[in-house]
What we know:
Elements: E1 2-7, E2 10-17, E3 24-32, E4 39-46, E5 52-55, E6 71-78, E7 87-95, E8 98-106
Antiparallel strand pairs: 1-2, 2-3, 3-6, 4-7, 5-6, 7-8
Amino acid sequence: VLTVFEKDGLKVTFTLSKPPGSPLGVLVSTVNATPVPLQNYVFQAAVPKAFQLQLQPQSSATVPPLGGGAVTQQITVLNPTQQPLRLRLKISFVANGAPVTYTTEVSNVPPQFF
């Protein structure tokens, strides 16, 4: 499990799987440690042109408070040139009526998943 974002009570992790000859599978899990639910939650990812990315629908648009459950989403990444993987992430939600957006980049994916 790779922690890709952690700030202000929000934690996003990747669980990676890559069977031989198959694309990289990423299970994205988002947990909220704050006392308020995060509404209208959207997780977006982008990769450089050398990669192909498929995002499946997320399990919910609300991240429950106090770690009361995770919102999950499955991503599939094709990496035909076996380059080190880089992803740009955009995470947005509404907390206490205020919109919040975070952006970050992930480049610490272990080489066995290329």
